[in-house]
């Protein structure tokens, strides 16, 4: 065999990367493109966004360009594409486009204008609610996934209990009692590191052992809380809260958000549990990077994919929930239009003015369907990327 | 058709298997020919991406078609071309006359069925015998592969066994219907070294007892040196060299084989620099013109870049696809 | 094993290292048993030297790597890096030392963050090492990639655009970015093709010469260990069974498990045969028995005495230690001639 070892002094001539340059975004787009329905969903998603923003601009303020609350009793219950009754109307009551595109409702209001106004509500409710859910979910899921194996000590539980009790009492206006408990709780937190340092090495006195005794793990704590939240039928929970609080769009958004973070938590925790065992995380720890940096800079971008998918589908669900609330009368108060309350107003006139039901109904259908298709397309396109093998 | 000793049991002739996708054709197997004789152990050795697994799967008809397609060649088993068989006919052969053992014993066994269930299934598909017989045969098979207390093992689930034991079960399933040929795809790669040695010894013993032929697919030259009668070295879908074990290890005649052997670390080479082959294995869809190895070959000449080399015969069944090392100037080039 | 003198040329010295993992059951996670991952472990690595840690799956070699990196806390024992016992340090004190000990992994696919470019992955280390300046970072990145034989064009690419061997080199570049003194190589070539293995082995050797590195080379492949390592420690179920210079291990293996390993390695150049053959396969679930030699179930020469007490190291030559009571002072067994 005449393979001289010296024939290879530069045995690794500078290695070029194999494939032509493709960022993960280009790679994702190539896969996503193949799913026509998903692309259609995305197009509608973007369209909806544009319509909602334009709608907001056109219908807000005292003298909006297109007025959703202008009452025209002469022209009530007109079908779609009907011409306005020009003899009976004031000049400024005439719809801007010359026809009632979607007809009018029982108060003569232009359904098209109301749909425009309502689209902004739907959009905001969808995004803000999901935004809250995602933030809470990522936070809790990340902690459960990364720190989950650590246990909560008795001392920490006591401190937390005191702090929460103190805060509650303060809110309930019992200043002295509340402040006292808060200070105790804060004190417990401060003592802990001192205690750990002082008893290192020597035999621990019984009370210190009890203080530092490990109870349940953080993972158990968070996930059982998730289970408890899942036990509540969320729609009825939302109804209850909304009925008790003053009716405002912000309350609705927050409540929907705070009752839909559980799924995200589970996804993120699952991803973190897997990621934590991967070598690149060990490498980051070996380099000495801080836990904060590892969680947010290294692990989070990898865990985000399932969250994106559930977020897009969550927007659709939030919109449906809001429509349901408005339909039942618990939503945004009149005269603000939402697609749900257009539906609600129309239920009394189903046979006389079916468009009052169909128009918002089909609108909701298209938006929810397109968001769902988009979300599924995202999931399929992101999946092979995560399991990429050369 | 009864095959006597030393006659050819399996003959692969100019096999071509391609994979088509929307923008490229991957030529995974690009014209290989080799024979397996009765009672012989043949090893197909090569690195990842050389096409050895696709070749083995195509013998059993397990290549997914589409995106794969058999673009040419014949696979003669006992004189019959397996590529002409339809689904029902090839199912009669699978597990019965040709059996296969896979790499990952963890995933090759179904985790929700007991061992007894799975071995029994292998038997029941091809033979119609009463249940008591099946159990007796399963126990005997487990004993043959060296598993203690076979009667109890039959009711175990795969996760209750170790990696070595699972691989033995896989071997037992392969032997269930007394096949003539066993194809083993990297059977010991996932196992510890000491368990690997035991499994190889076991296969050897079984082969002798049952007069079976074995076709090993592996990347581990050490394993090849222990078990092979004949060796086929594959590179980028072609057969670079084939011959007896002695031929290949003491007198390789293809630059790729020579380079592989020179790059193996060993205690004897301590202090010397290892030979390492520059460059990387070509993508099956973007192979260079001419000889697929020429960009990495220290002996390449101009003709190597333009013409596809033919097989050069060194006698005694030893062939290498390199005319440069054969006679230097090109009696054996083909397009 | 107290009393191993710390020679001045020692970069890492491990003494009586012990790590047990608790098995917890139930809602309150009560401890029902222990997995004895690493026990009574001692070895030294000299400056510019390579120690090979050989063993099969489950022997604890990965646990050793994580203990040395302080990704896991040892239960007992000392880890002396340049004479300083790092087991006693807390996280804050350990942080500046982390750059001295780095690791390269077995799986080239999981060892790089798929969402960060090559440049970003390597630059994380540069930040720690104190290179914050943008232009200096760029220069250093290019230098590091060239040092491992990769073109600087790779800086903006993502890991999935590279082959296994190339990714392994990127991992090496990342380890080098903080200028360590010791690199733990955890089976760095097992997942690579044969022709690429030689490239990486040559690279590791070159880097050792150029940068005065020490290596802890973990592998199950005795061929590579025999080629690359100065000292070898053979591990089985958390214990070191034999500890000797590489040449002595191959010329004069003593422990039955070493015999087993050597006769099992498929070797193209020579055939090592031994009268020792293991009894049976590794059983599926192995929790270590409390006392006695952990190899006795598979050992062809085991006796009752092997169950009765823990076995200590015995010296059978210069720097050659064996954990078997049947070994005479000259390394021979009673029936093994």
Strand segment count of chain A: 2
Radius of gyration of chain A: 29 Å
SS strand fraction of chain A: under 5%
According to CATH, what is the class of chain A? Mainly Alpha
Record field, number of beta strands of chain C: 12
Name the helix and strand elements of chain C from N-terminus to C-terminus, one letter apiece. Answer: EEEHEEHEHHHEHEHEEHHHEE
The rounded distance between the terminal residues' Cα atoms of chain C is 29 Å
Name the shape of chain A in a single word.
flat
The CATH superfamily of chain C bears the name P-loop containing nucleotide triphosphate hydrolases
Strand content of chain C: 15-25%
Secondary-structure class of chain C: alpha/beta
Account of the protein in words:
The complex is a heterotrimer of chains A (390), B (335) and C (337). Helices cover 65% and strands 2% of the residues of chain A. Chain A is mostly helical and 390 residues long. Chain A has a two-stranded antiparallel ribbon with strand order 1-2. The longest helix of chain A is centred in the C-terminal third of the chain and has 38 residues, at 291-328. Chain A starts with 23 loop residues before the first helix and ends with a helix. Chain B has a domain at 289-335. Chain B is built from 13 helices and 14 strands. The two termini of chain B are 38 Å apart. In chain C, β4 (76-81) and β5 (84-85) form a beta hairpin. Chain C has one domain: P-loop containing nucleotide triphosphate hydrolases (Rossmann fold). Chains in contact: A-B, A-C, B-C. Chains A and C meet through β2, α11 and α12 of A and β6, α3, α5 and α6 of C.
């Amino acid at each position: 065999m005449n393979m001289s070892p010296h024939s290879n002094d530069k045995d690794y001539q500078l290695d070029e990367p194999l494939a032509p340059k493709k960022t993960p975004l280009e790679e994702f787009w190539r896969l996503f493109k193949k799913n026509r329905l998903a692309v259609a969903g995305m197009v509608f998603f973007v369209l909806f966004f544009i319509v909602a923003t334009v709608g907001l601009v056109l219908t807000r303020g005292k003298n909006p360009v297109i007025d959703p609350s202008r009452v025209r009793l002469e022209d009530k219950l007109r079908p779609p594409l009907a011409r306005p009754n020009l003899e009976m109307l004031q000049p400024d009551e005439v719809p801007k486009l010359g026809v009632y595109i979607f007809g009018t409702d029982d108060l003569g209001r232009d359904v098209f204008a109301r749909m425009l106004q309502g689209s902004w509500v739907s959009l905001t409710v969808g995004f803000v609610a999901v935004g809250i859910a995602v933030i809470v979910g990522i936070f809790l899921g990340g902690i459960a996934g990364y720190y989950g194996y650590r246990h909560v000590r008795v001392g920490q539980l006591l401190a937390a209990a005191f702090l929460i009790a103190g805060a509650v009492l303060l809110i309930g206006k019992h200043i002295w009692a509340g402040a006292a408990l808060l200070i105790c709780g804060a004190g417990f937190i401060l003592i802990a590191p001192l205690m750990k340092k002082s008893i290192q090495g020597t035999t621990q006195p019984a009370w210190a052992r009890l203080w530092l005794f490990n109870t349940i793990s953080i993972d158990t704590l968070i996930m059982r809380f998730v289970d408890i939240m899942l036990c509540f039928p969320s729609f009825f929970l939302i109804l209850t809260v909304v009925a008790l609080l003053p009716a405002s769009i912000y309350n609705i958004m927050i409540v929907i958000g705070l009752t839909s973070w559980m799924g995200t938590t589970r996804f993120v925790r699952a991803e973190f549990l897997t990621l934590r065992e991967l070598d690149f995380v060990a490498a980051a720890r070996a380099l000495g990077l801080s836990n904060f940096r590892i969680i947010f800079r290294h692990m989070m971008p990898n865990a985000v994919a399932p969250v994106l998918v559930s977020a897009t589908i969550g927007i659709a669900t939030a919109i449906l929930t809001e429509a349901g609330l408005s339909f039942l009368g618990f939503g945004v108060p009149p005269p603000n239009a939402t697609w749900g309350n257009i539906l609600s107003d129309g239920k009394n006139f189903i046979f006389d003015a079916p468009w009052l039901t169909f128009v918002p109904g089909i609108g909701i259908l298209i938006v929810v369907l397109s968001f769902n298709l988009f979300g599924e397309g995202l999931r399929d396109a992101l999946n092979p990327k995560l399991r990429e093998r050369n | 058709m009864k095959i006597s000793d030393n006659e050819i049991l399996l003959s692969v002739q100019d096999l071509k298997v391609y994979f088509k996708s929307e923008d490229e054709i991957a030529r995974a197997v690009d014209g290989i020919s080799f024979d397996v004789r009765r009672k012989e152990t043949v090893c197909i050795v090569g690195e990842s991406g050389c096409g050895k697994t696709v070749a083995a799967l195509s013998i059993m008809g397990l290549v997914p078609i589409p995106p794969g397609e058999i673009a040419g060649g014949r696979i003669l088993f006992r004189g019959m071309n397996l590529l002409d068989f339809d689904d029902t006919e090839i199912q009669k052969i699978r597990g019965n006359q040709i059996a296969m053992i896979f790499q990952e014993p963890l995933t090759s066994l179904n985790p929700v069925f007991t061992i007894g269930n799975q071995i029994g299934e292998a038997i029941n598909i091809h033979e119609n015998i009463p249940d008591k017989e099946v159990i007796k045969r399963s126990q005997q098979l487990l004993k043959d592969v060296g598993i203690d207390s076979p009667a109890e093992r039959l009711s175990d689930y795969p996760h209750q066994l170790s990696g070595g034991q699972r691989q033995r079960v896989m071997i037992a399933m392969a032997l269930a219907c007394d096949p003539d040929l066993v194809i083993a795809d990297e059977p010991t790669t996932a196992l510890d070294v000491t368990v690997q040695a035991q499994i190889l010894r076991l296969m050897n013993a079984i082969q002798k007892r049952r007069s079976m032929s074995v076709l090993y697919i592996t990347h581990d030259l050490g394993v090849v040196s222990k078990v092979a009668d004949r060796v086929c070295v594959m590179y980028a879908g072609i057969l670079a060299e084939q011959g007896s074990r002695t031929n290949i290890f003491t007198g390789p005649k293809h630059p790729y084989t020579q380079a592989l052997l020179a790059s193996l670390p060993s205690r004897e080479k301590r202090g010397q620099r290892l030979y390492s082959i520059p460059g990387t294995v070509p993508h099956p869809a973007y192979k260079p013109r001419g000889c697929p190895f020429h960009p990495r070959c220290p002996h390449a000449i101009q003709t190597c870049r333009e013409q596809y080399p033919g097989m050069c015969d060194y006698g005694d069944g030893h062939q290498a696809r390199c005319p440069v090392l054969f006679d230097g100037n090109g009696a054996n080039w083909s397009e | 094993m107290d009393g191993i003198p710390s020679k001045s040329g020692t970069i890492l010295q491990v003494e009586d290292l012990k790590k047990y993992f608790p098995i917890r059951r139930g809602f309150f996670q009560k401890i029902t048993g222990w997995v004895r991952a690493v026990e009574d472990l001692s070895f030294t690595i000299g400056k510019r030297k390579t120690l090979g840690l050989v063993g099969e799956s489950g022997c604890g070699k990965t646990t050793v790597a994580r203990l040395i990196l302080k990704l896991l806390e040892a239960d007992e024992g000392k880890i002396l890096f340049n004479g300083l016992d790092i087991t006693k340090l807390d996280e804050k004190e350990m942080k500046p030392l982390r750059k001295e000990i780095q690791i390269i992994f077995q799986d080239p696919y999981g060892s790089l963050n798929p969402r960060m470019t090559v440049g970003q992955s390597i630059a994380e280390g540069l930040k720690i090492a104190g290179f914050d300046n943008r232009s200096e970072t760029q220069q250093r990145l290019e230098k590091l990639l060239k040092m491992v034989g990769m073109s600087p064009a790779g800086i903006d690419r993502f890991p999935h655009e590279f082959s296994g061997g190339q990714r392994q080199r990127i991992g090496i570049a990342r380890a080098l970015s903080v200028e360590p003194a010791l690199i733990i190589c955890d089976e760095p070539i097992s997942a690579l093709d044969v022709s690429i293995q030689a490239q990486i082995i040559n690279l590791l050797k070159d880097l050792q010469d150029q940068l005065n590195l020490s290596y802890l080379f973990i592998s199950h492949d005795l061929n590579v260990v025999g080629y690359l390592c100065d000292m070898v420690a053979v591990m089985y179920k958390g214990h070191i069974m034999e500890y000797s210079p590489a040449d002595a291990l191959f010329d004069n293996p003593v422990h039955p498990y070493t015999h087993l390993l050597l006769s099992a390695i498929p070797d193209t150049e020579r055939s090592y045969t031994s009268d020792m053959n293991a009894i049976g396969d590794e059983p599926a679930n192995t929790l270590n028995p409390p006392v006695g030699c952990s190899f006795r179930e598979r050992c062809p020469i085991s006796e009752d005495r092997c169950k009765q007490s823990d076995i200590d190291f015995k010296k059978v030559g210069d720097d050659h230690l064996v954990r078997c009571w049947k070994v005479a002072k000259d390394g021979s067994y009673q029936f093994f001639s």
